[in-house]
Design goal:
The chain contains three helices and no strands. It is mostly helical and 76 residues long.
């Protein structure tokens, strides 16, 4: 998963250059919400042994890249 995250970095940089910093803010919101949901579900399922996997970060990055730049934050 780390290789996929590293390969997505140039795409995110280019999208931030083309569409502005709103893309990075949207990425941060989606990543925080995704990681929080993953942690909550894993905490419920596994108790104190909850871990957030790297797969949720890949999912959040790809989800953000599929959204239009003018997407409201609450929709993401």
């Amino acid at each position: 998963m780390r290789k996929v995250l590293v390969s997505l970095i140039p795409i995110i940089i280019m999208s931030a250059w083309l569409f502005g910093l709103r893309v990075l803010i949207l990425l941060a919101i989606v990543t925080i919400a995704g990681a929080a949901c993953e942690y909550a579900i894993m905490r419920y399922a596994n108790g104190k042994n909850a871990k957030v996997s790297e797969a949720v970060l890949v999912t959040c990055f790809l989800f953000t890249l599929t959204l239009p730049p003018a997407t409201p934050y609450w929709v993401a």
